[in-house]
Amino acid sequence: MSVPLWAWFAVLGVILVMLAVDLVAHRKAHVIGVREAAAWSIVWVVLGVSFGVLVWSLWGAEFGQQYFAGYLIEKSLAVDNVFVWAIIFAAFAVPREYQHRVLFLGVLGALIFRGIFIAAGAALIENFAWILYVFAAFLIYTGWRMFRSRNDHIHPEKSKILKAFRRFVPMTDAYHGQKFLIRKAGIVVATPLLAVLVLVEITDIIFAVDSIPAIFAVTSEPFLVFTANAFAILGLRAMYFLLADLIHRFIYLKVGLAFVLIWVGIKMLLLDVLYIPTTISLAVVATIITVSIVASLRATRGQGRREVQTEAAGAFRLASDEELAAAEPVFRRRGRVPAERKVSSDD
């Protein structure tokens, strides 16, 4: 697959433009409802599918199918990521109107980290072909581990990362709007929103460790790996606001994701022994995900939307008007002297 340099820049340009549009559309903190989340989800899916159609028309059916297989795998694994975000937000009692800012920066970080992982993975595969067998074994093990722990949930309040953050970074227990840092009594301190952002970024990195090897099982083209990842990740924020209150209904999704990882691991393991066409891989992944979702919704029919319930990671609250007024700017202008400390030249 020969991809000209301008195609890379064109894709990056589209991503940056869409991120800018999303940021402008959500520049004011507000609660994102189901209708708004559904509308944005449709926009991101149409964008991702349209790009796949473009790949199909420019580079042929094989590469088009590889893109769609990778896109479907990344989109499916992203649902599990969304559920983890919901638990983190619930543990920190993050007001809904502030969640989009965290997710926007989280997704931006995820794009950067995944770009690095994809470049590293492509370099390893090109120089050490045997690394594919390591990826395959890792995927099978990860799938088996996910199946065994399908009923377990993360506990942000017990996170070692959170404990380390609290140990080394002074933090207030009050949310000051969408600010991540404030200056309190002359000292820069973090708000709970920064701790949440750190945990979101760390979970993105952990999920990337699973998903990047998985997509290399269906395509070895860095361009397809990156674009499938990018277009799947771009819709995560909207997906979160659409599905966060429905976690309790997707009871078999983790089982489906486990089988997907095991399947792509086996496919990669048999790469030099048995060639499995991309069409079959795409069909198998789509079938597994569809069956797990339909079975989940049928088993939980009649249940409505409800907020995630989990153990609190601390006693967090909204800052009072007095606290908001007393908060000082984090960055001060040099040479600026507070008014109360100014001394007249006649003194």
Explained architecture:
It is found in: Membrane. Pfam families: TerC. Keywords: Membrane, Transmembrane, Transmembrane helix. InterPro entries: Integral_membrane_TerC, Integral_membrane_TerC_rswitch. This is Tellurium resistance protein TerC. The protein is mainly alpha-helical and 347 residues long. It has a domain at 5-128 and 152-245 and 317-330. It is built from 12 helices and 4 strands. The protein has helices at 5-25, 34-59, 61-91, 96-127, 131-148, 160-168, 192-216, 222-234, 236-243, 253-269, 278-299, 321-326, and strands spanning 174-175, 181-184, 187-190, 317-318. A two-stranded parallel ribbon has the order 1-4. A hairpin with a 2-residue loop joins β2 and β3 (187-190). α1 (5-25) packs parallel to α8. The chain is globular and about 70 Å long. The model is unreliable at 337-347 (pLDDT under 50).
Keywords:
Tellurium resistance protein TerC, 347 residues, mainly alpha, disordered C terminus, single chain, two-stranded parallel ribbon, 12 helices, Integral_membrane_TerC, two-stranded antiparallel sheet
